[in-house]
Amino acid sequence: MLQVMLQVKGLQTFYGKSQALFGMSFDVEAGQVVTLLGRNGMGKTTTVNSLMGIIKPSKGSILLDDIQILGQPSFKIANKGLGLVPEGRQVFPNLSVRENLIATASNHLGLKQPWTIERVYELFPELLSRSTSMGNLLSGGEQQMLAIGRALMTNPKLLILDEATEGLAPLIREKIWQALGHLRDSGLSILLIDKNLKDLLKLADRHFIVEKGLVVWSGTSDDLRKAVKVQQDHLGL
Fold first, then answer.
1. CA angle 92, 96, 100 (to 5 degrees)
2. Which of 18, 19, 29, 52 has its CA 20 to 30 A from that of 181?
3. Which of 43, 47, 38 lies closest to 233, judged by CA?
4. What is the dihedral of CA 44, 203, 66, 216, to 10 degrees?
5. Degrees (nearest 5) of the Cα angle 186, 192, 36?
6. For the whole model, what pTM was predicted?
7. Residue 149 is inside which H or E element, if any?
8. Domain spanning 4-235: CATH 3.40.50.300
9. What's the count of helices (H) and strands (E) in the chain, helices before strands?
10. Is the separation of the CB atoms in 159 and 83 below 8 Å?
11. Dist. CA 118–CA 11, nearest whole Å
12. 187 Cβ contact partners less than 8 Å away, ≥ 6 residues apart
């Protein structure tokens, strides 16, 4: 039986008077890849922002290894082991690739084999050849690799990716999926948002489908492959 690393219960989140989450609940077990799926505007990014302390839910619970992190500031949540690859990448445009990686380097959890720049370059060799290039001069795919590497340099226990391959060319997407597969095989827990269901079904252990700020379906990859009507009704496939 795997240990539950992240447990989210009953999140209610508002933007002003407009409610976005209506009781969001799901969990991530240690060493698993878990997805949040759903059409645009259903609450996936709001969920990520709630987890990271970017916005504060009005109700609910977020337990990371049985420690309540709801309402804590973002830097403390990051120090406790949540690493975010945000939608839109958001690399530092006026820093080089190497400087982007150095900027987030930390090992607050005291990992014996922490992520280093060299390990990131092994995962994404493309970044090594661009190590002195400014962030704003990178291609979209290189920026996404850098965003993942930057998050790994925080040495997280759970890596969160919001729209992992959105807008990337097929060849670059394949490289990202291969890297995420390597991270999964290394034992890193991953929470993943993406629209490429075919690739997600190969990579992930469990899936949670979100609609109007609630989880409306959950199951394994095998379950979701068989649930054709669920795909049609909630994913538009």
1. 50
2. 52
3. 38
4. 40
5. 140
6. 0.95
7. helix 140-152
8. yes
9. 10, 10
10. yes
11. 38
12. 31
Query: Both tokens of residue 13?
Result: 């989140």
Query: In which residue are the tokens 């990992």 written?
Result: 111
Three-state DSSP class for 118?
helix
- Give the domain ranges of the chain: 4-235
Question: Which residues, listed in sequence order, are joined to residue 6 by a DSSP beta bridge?
Answer: 28, 64
Are the C-beta atoms of residues 59 and 19 closer than 8 Å to each other? no
**β partners of residue 218:** 208
Sign of CA dihedral 151, 157, 163, 164: positive
- 4: Cβ contacts below 8 Å, ≥ 6 apart: 27, 28, 29, 30
Tens-place pLDDT, residues 92-142? 999 999 999 999 999 999 999 999 999 999 999 999 999 999 999 999 999
Give every CB contact of residue 208 below 8 A, 6+ residues apart in sequence: 26, 34, 35, 36, 37, 215, 217, 218
